[in-house]
Each structure stands twice: as structure tokens, then as C-alpha cells.
Amino acid sequence: MADASEASRSGPSLEPITRRVVERLAAAGAAFDRRHGASRPKAGRKKPLATLAGNAAADTARRRERACLRSVFLELGDAHRRYRMQTGRSGTPALREAAHAFKREPSVDSLVPVVAFLDELGILAW
User: In 10 A of CB 121, how many CB atoms?
Assistant: First the structure.
């Protein structure tokens, strides 16, 4: 049960960051929808077969989620590279490990530690 108490102690401190990440992902999702919704006029779009509609919708949702996560992660990478160029500092092993964990399993939960590191450095504009 010690793990549960540790999680509850560290959880609230990351809660505001998690909220910010979710808001940023929502903005990335809106941008994704704008980019992909304007590709062809609705009259020209092919309608998926009824049997494929459920699978296609689920696949599209997964693709959208991964694209949004990747977009935010790349934005964070750009911000960190600018910070390193301005300060002359190198990346930290803990940040590097958090980035590798995100790349292995992209999710909101694996993105939050990356955002937390960059937030501590004060380089996030959001």
C-alpha cells in the first residue's frame, strides 16, 4: 500500500500539468480536425460501407489521438531545443528518459512528465 500513498502524494502536484496537457491536446485536436476536414468537399467524399464504419471511426480516432500527442511532443522538443541553444545547457538524463518513455508508449500519462520537466525550466508558453 505504500505505492498507493506515494501516488496520491505525487498525483495532486501533477494534476494542474495534466489539465494543461489535456487542454493543449484539445487545441491540437481542433487543428487536426481543421486540416483533415477541409481536404475535400463533403459531396466528393466516399461514404464507408456500413460494416466498415465502426472500424474506420475507431481507427480514425486512434490516428487523431496519436497525431495530436505527436504534435504536442514535437512542439515541446522545439521549445527545449531553443532553450538549450539560448542557455548553452545540455539535456538532462531524466528528461531524456521521460522522452524515451513517451516514444515507447505515447499517451497523456507519458507526456505529463516531459511537460513537468519543461515547466520547471520555465520554457512553456502555455
Answer: 15
Q: Where are the domains of the chain?
A: 2-40+49-121
Question: Can you tell me the distance from the alpha carbon of 22 to that of 58, in angstroms, rounded to the nearest whole number?
Answer: 20
What is the greatest pairwise CA distance in the chain? Answer: 58
% helix / strand / coil in the chain, to the nearest 5?
A: 80, 0, 20
Distance between CA 51 and CA 49 in Å, rounded?
Answer: 5
pTM of the model: 0.75
Q: What is the pLDDT of residues 51-108, one digit of tens each?
A: 556 677 788 889 999 999 999 999 999 999 999 999 999 989 999 999 999 999 999 9
Read out DSSP for 37-72?
HTSS-GGGSPPPPHHHHHHHHHHHHHHHHHHHHHHH
